[in-house]
Amino acid sequence: MNNTACQLHIEGEMTIYTAAETKARLLPLLAQCIDLEIDLSQVNEMDSAGLQLLILAKRACTKRNGNLHLVGHSKAVAEVLELCNMMSFFAEAHAASSKTH
Fold first, then answer.
1. What percent of the chain has pLDDT over 70?
2. Which of 85, 72, 66, 91 lies closest to 6 in space, CA to CA?
């Protein structure tokens, strides 16, 4: 397992329609890196399937004593996190990246 942070940039939708594709990109990174940085600045739509992928990533990183960092989360991402009362769950993950609200 690599000690450096891996990066994933997601563009467009994080919805039920793109969840399988996004998960296929996410799982190899979770398998090889302790820390993961996900750039959400270009996400224009997110639903509960997208939220589930972020929860999966957070739990996988935490299980390995690593960190998840959400970078540049978009308005669409922030709205879903707020609506689902998940801001505190991801507090560490997005605290340093609230630059694109």
1. 86
2. 66
